[in-house]
């Protein structure tokens, strides 16, 4: 075998290897090409560098403006053909777009040494710029991936109970800090670990200066971890004038859309340190409470007469109650020797007691009132507004409009039937009441004054 074709002979000749490297070097070729023009020596270097820079710019534009869009178009077409949905979220959040930027920067960084072998300082700075471009693209890739994860998570049932926005913002903040450290390390040509070692003193200063944002940051994590508030919850925070649905649970703030369509932004620290009302459990249990009083004029409360008892028995909902109650009272009065000549002796039925029994039966027969939760009709202590009869129950409808309609229907009926029990509803005297009294007694007063 001839020496020219022998591998050992070729490897043993370092000059031939150097010649091949020089032949493959773009920088060498450009310098030789410019030298062949016969330009002056002082112009040869700058002109060669200019040509190399223009070549790098043109190559970068070729990658970013022509090759990258064509590649993205192909990737988009492939994604739309797949049956799964998660890759569509990747496309919508720009993961392929930023990945193409990263790959373009990587290709440019690899090829730059070939262009600037004879000008290493310039080549080094251009490589740093390419690395910074890659760091920036890498950060946006991570950001897009996190947004994709959020979009996929929000499609699940768990997202209605556990808000992931705070944790997502924490991860984004960590990614941003990592990108900043990597960017600084590229610029100063130092290891990222060396930079972290020097951040100890700076961290203590930052903690002092940014104390409130850091506390809000910690409160946001605590708020999300303990599931105190989730998007869609109805919360009331009187201190901050918030009464509406939670739109977004952020790391430092919570956005609430009030029922008047205004927006209130509340610091997360305020929700952790102060009390607030969350109506989420109402929606979870599927019932909503009714707690309201009917004020009865005490002057209309009386013992039931025979005529009233006869009328009570005609009311279907309390017919059985009246009959059993009368029997029970008659037996008690007989056993205890109550004198029937005076109603104050023994036990007697009252119109207010029968009315309370009617309300309870009416609620029990209402299909929109929950039978599995507390149902109570009670008498509270008398006030200057009369005797309060409190209705305490739960509707099986939690939607606001329907709830108000159900509550209104119940009290419309209960207020209207008070006359059937010889009761009067108390209300503060109005101008019309005063005029009625004056008209009734005004003439008599005038006649009395004339006689006097």
Structure summarized in a few sentences:
With 452 residues, this protein is an alpha+beta fold. The chain has helices at residues 7-11, 14-24, 26-35, 41-81, 86-92, 95-115, 120-153, 165-188, 192-197, 199-209, 211-225, 268-273, 280-285, 306-313, 316-335, 351-364, 400-416, 431-451; strands at 234-237, 242-249, 253-258, 263-267, 277-278, 288-296, 376-379, 387-395. The protein is built from 18 helices and 8 strands.
Describe this structure in words.
With 452 residues, the protein is α+β, with helices and mostly antiparallel strands. Among the domains are: 21-155, no CATH class; 291-432, no CATH class. Helices cover 61% and strands 10% of the residues. The protein has helices at residues 7-11, 14-24, 26-35, 41-81, 86-92, 95-115, 120-153, 165-188, 192-197, 199-209, 211-225, 268-273, 280-285, 306-313, 316-335, 351-364, 400-416, 431-451, and strands at residues 234-237, 242-249, 253-258, 263-267, 277-278, 288-296, 376-379, 387-395. The strands form two sheets. It has a five-stranded antiparallel β-sheet. α3 (26-35) crosses α4, α8 crosses α11 and α15 packs across α16 (351-364). The longest helix has 41 residues, at 41-81. The radius of gyration is 43 Å and the shape is rod-shaped. The termini are far apart.
């Amino acid at each position: 075998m001839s020496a020219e074709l022998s591998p050992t002979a070729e490897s043993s000749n370092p000059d031939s290897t150097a010649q091949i490297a020089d032949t493959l070097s773009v920088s060498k070729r450009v310098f030789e090409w410019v030298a062949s023009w016969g330009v002056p020596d002082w112009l040869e270097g700058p002109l060669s560098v200019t040509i190399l820079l223009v070549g790098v710019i043109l190559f970068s534009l070729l990658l970013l403006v022509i090759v990258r869009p064509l590649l993205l178009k192909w990737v988009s077409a492939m994604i739309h053909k797949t049956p799964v949905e998660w890759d569509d979220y990747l496309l919508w959040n720009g993961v392929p777009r930023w990945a193409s930027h990263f790959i373009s920067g990587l290709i440019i960084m690899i090829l730059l040494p070939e262009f600037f072998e004879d000008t290493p300082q310039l080549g080094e700075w251009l490589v740093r710029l390419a690395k910074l471009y890659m760091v920036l693209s890498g950060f946006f890739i991570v950001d897009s991936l996190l947004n994709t994860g959020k979009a996929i998570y929000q499609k699940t049932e768990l997202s209605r109970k556990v808000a992931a926005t705070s944790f997502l913002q924490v991860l984004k903040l960590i990614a941003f800090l990592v990108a900043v450290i990597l960017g600084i390390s590229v610029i100063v040509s130092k290891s990222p670990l060396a930079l972290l070692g020097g951040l100890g003193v700076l961290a203590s200063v930052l903690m002092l200066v940014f104390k409130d944002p850091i506390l809000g940051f910690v409160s946001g994590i605590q708020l999300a971890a303990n599931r105190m508030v989730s998007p869609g919850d109805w919360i009331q925070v009187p201190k901050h004038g918030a009464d509406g649905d939670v739109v977004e649970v952020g790391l430092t703030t919570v956005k609430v859309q009030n029922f008047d369509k205004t927006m209130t932004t509340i610091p997360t620290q305020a929700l952790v340190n102060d009390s607030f009302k969350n109506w989420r459990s109402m929606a979870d249990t599927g019932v909503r409470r009714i707690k309201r009083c009917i004020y009865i004029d005490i002057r209309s409360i009386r013992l039931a007469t025979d005529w009233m008892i006869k009328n009570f028995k005609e009311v279907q909902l309390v017919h059985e109650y009246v009959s059993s109650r009368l029997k029970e009272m008659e037996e008690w009065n007989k056993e205890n020797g109550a004198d029937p000549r005076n109603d104050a002796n023994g036990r007697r039925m009252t119109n207010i007691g029968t009315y309370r029994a009617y309300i309870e039966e009416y609620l029990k027969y209402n299909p929109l009132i929950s039978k599995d939760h507390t149902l109570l009709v009670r008498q509270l202590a008398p006030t200057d507004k009369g005797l309060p009869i409190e209705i305490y129950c739960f509707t099986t409808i939690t939607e606001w409009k329907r709830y108000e309609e159900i509550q209104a229907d119940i009290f419309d009926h209960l207020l209207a039937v008070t006359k059937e029990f010889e009761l009067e509803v108390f209300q503060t005297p109005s101008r019309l009441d005063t005029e009625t009294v004056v008209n009734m007694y005004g003439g008599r007063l005038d006649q009395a004054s004339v006689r006097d």
